[in-house]
Amino acid sequence: MSALLLFGLNHETADLALRERLAFPAPVLTDRLASLRRAVEPLAPEQAILSTCNRTELVLAVGASSDVDHAEARTLAWLAEQGQLDPQALRSHLYVHRDADAAEHIFRVAAGLDSMVLGEPQILGQLKDAARDAQAAGSLGPTLHQLFQSAFACAKEVRTHTAIGSASVSLASAGVRLAQQIFGQLSETRMLFIGAGEMIQLCLAHFAAQQPQALVVCNRTLARAEALAAEHGGSAMPLSLLPERLHEFDVVVSCTASTLPILGSGLVGRALKRRKHRPMFLADLAVPRDIEAEVRGLSDAFLFTIDDFSALVSQGTQARRDAAAEAMVYIERAREGFVQRMASREQLPLIKALGQYADGLVEQEVSAGLRRLSPEDRAAAEPTLQGVARGVVQKLLHGAYAGLNDPRPEVRSATAAQVQALLRLDGFSKGSE
Question: How much is the pLDDT for 433?
């Protein structure tokens, strides 16, 4: 049976600077997946990477339980190499989960219980992207496929039956409140949004509701910026115009997949000089950062990163605790179901052998019956004989199939021993694959 192994760090275990060094944005993710695969195969034939502004997680399906320690050592060495870090120093910032605990962690992530903003919905889409990326890279096998599908189903249950979504406080609304602390009413401000992903779309919806004087979307793909700006009555501009126009904006929100900063301290400094001491609010929601950290030291620049929002999103604690407690009921149920499905896979070779045995019995008895008939009657009688024989065999073996798929491991084990002893299906011992 495959073993699950999960490595991760998030906003609670690592600061922004460390998360930046181990972030794998879309432009480099495919290469990193290929590199991880080379590092851990053949020990761990399945791999997936989840990389967001708040977390980087590696999920592996290890071929055999006896290989987990070796696979863990290889994974730690690979991750440390990506960030040019000492493995033991990095280890203190990581959480490592195995098997059922790894599955439960992924279910919590999918449901939004492990996010900076409890219940935020974006993480589920990011988890689906991680599954699609792994599938496209050829590293999504049956174990991780089952894990992700179970996580998506669990998240749907949680959102359907609890108030976890309504209890969330989004980063976008927190950004609005921070900007209001600087400018008061935002209706007289001019706003610039850099990027066109999910986070920018959410921010646009919240900031546009403040009816700003101007709203501009800036993106590498101008057509995408124009379409997004049109939804909120704004305009678009290409990235190439940032140096020329940055000084026009009071509020700047950036979240792209760039691996290098888009706004350097020199560029922002020149824009502030042209603004003649009028303040500028800058929200950098990207990891790696879109705005150089040195901007925080410039006069009249108010720079906030993803980690600066944690205090604001801690409001409504009791409501979120209640919703999280309800959600854990569904997560525990999903964990138990996943463990049972994975455990039942131990008997798949024996179940397959039992099916082959049943097919052989049917073929043998039908052939014997057809030989007793005249040639002209055989064609008409064969479907009936097939149906009768298959029905009898399936009824006789129903108990064996039920026992091999029973959620209780002791029942599966006892049934496997009985089936092998009675039917002499040698070579299919418990746990073989």
Answer: 38
